[in-house]
């Protein structure tokens, strides 16, 4: 407590006030409790003492020479306890960040070493907070010029959206791993109250990741990417999950510019294409050079994107595009006539899908 506050307190209670430090033994000898805590009081012949801070060996007390009512003393005691709780919370948050950064460093080292299947050693303090069935989210921010939110700020925001059981782990600069409980999926149930199917779980995960991305952009602005994976056992597969989600975001940024929410189960083809040597990809595009101009028409591209997103279902694609079914069929027939590719045919659909993905990459080079 600084001098200004001491003077203010003296004016309020109309008496002298000072801060003193004594050993625990001296506190007990004066009549205090053997295990003093902030807010404890001790009556004196003239005035009283109030514990403001206590550690293993010493007690900091506020000595006051004034006649106060019982209510006034209780209020002072309450204020001392609140101050102690605030400092304790701050210390706890600082310790949690230290532990989280330590685990994050180990995760990064394991990924760099190619040890994707490594299990988390029990020596880490956060090991006990990693329970079965946690949902991994990976957040990457692209706004290098903006102030990076502090660990405390981020954790507070994520905790408000996910739950008190979430865990925030810093990785590289402007990259964070968020672990939430799989109980977040409990709100998605079938009408019969049964366990949700895997497809429904994925839909729920997409919804959670989309909401997380929206919350972050509204809170801090700027561009960021969020990837989400299915629930895991962190102690066994957290390294693999982080590496996979990081790869998923990189593939999404490469093949799907403009998208900011990414799922590993939607980039299998992109992962395969990314692993093909560049000369092989270039030769394939050269062989199909006569058909690349179809991707320069925005209407054709948007139509094909929707068609593949709806699993090549004509009726659902027309609904998504808000056009008549016959209008969609006309567009697909026009594509067949001009490019010789009928996306309603399995083989041609695969070919067009490959061309679209590769064109999105090559056109930016």
UniProtKB/TrEMBL annotation:
Pfam families noted in UniProt: HTH_30
Source lineage: Bacteria, Bacillati, Bacillota, Bacilli, Bacillales
InterPro entries: CdaR-like_regulators, Homeodomain-like_sf, PucR_C-HTH_dom, PucR_C-HTH_sf
Protein name: Helix-turn-helix domain-containing protein
Domain of life according to the entry: Bacteria
Domain PucR C-terminal helix-turn-helix as annotated: residue spans: 301-356
């Amino acid at each position: 407590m600084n001098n200004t506050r001491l003077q203010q307190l003296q004016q309020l209670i109309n008496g002298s006030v000072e801060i003193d430090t004594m050993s625990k033994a001296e506190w007990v000898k004066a009549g205090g409790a053997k295990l003093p805590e902030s807010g404890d009081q001790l009556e004196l012949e003239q005035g009283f003492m109030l514990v403001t801070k206590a550690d293993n060996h010493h007690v900091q007390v506020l000595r006051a020479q004034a006649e106060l009512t019982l209510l006034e003393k209780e209020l002072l005691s309450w204020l001392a306890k609140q101050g102690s709780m605030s400092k304790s919370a701050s210390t706890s948050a600082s310790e949690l960040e230290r532990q989280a950064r330590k685990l994050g460093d180990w995760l990064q080292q394991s990924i760099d070493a190619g040890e994707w299947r490594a299990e988390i050693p029990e020596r880490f303090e956060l090991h006990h907070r990693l329970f079965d069935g946690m949902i991994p989210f990976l957040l990457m921010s692209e706004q290098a010029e903006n102030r990076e939110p502090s660990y405390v700020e981020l954790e507070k925001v994520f905790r408000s959206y996910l739950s008190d059981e979430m865990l925030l782990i810093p990785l590289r600069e402007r990259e964070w791993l968020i672990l939430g409980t799989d109980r977040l999926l409990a709100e998605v149930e079938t009408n019969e109250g049964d366990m949700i199917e895997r497809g429904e779980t994925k839909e729920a995960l997409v919804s959670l990741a989309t909401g997380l991305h929206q919350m972050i952009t509204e809170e801090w602005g700027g561009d960021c990417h969020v990837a989400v994976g299915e629930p895991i056992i962190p102690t066994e597969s957290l390294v693999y999950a982080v590496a996979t989600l990081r790869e998923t975001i990189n593939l999404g940024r490469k093949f799907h510019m403009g998208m900011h929410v990414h799922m590993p189960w939607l980039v299998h083809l992109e992962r395969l294409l990314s692993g093909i040597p560049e000369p092989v990809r270039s030769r394939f595009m050269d062989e199909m050079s006569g058909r690349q101009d179809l991707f320069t028409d925005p209407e054709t591209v948007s139509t094909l994107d929707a068609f593949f997103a709806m699993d090549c279902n004509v009726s659902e694609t027309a609904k998504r595009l808000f056009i008549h079914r016959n209008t969609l069929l006309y567009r697909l027939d026009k594509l067949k006539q001009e490019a010789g590719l009928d996306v309603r045919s399995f083989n041609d659909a695969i070919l067009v899908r490959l061309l679209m993905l590769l064109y999105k990459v090559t056109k930016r080079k």
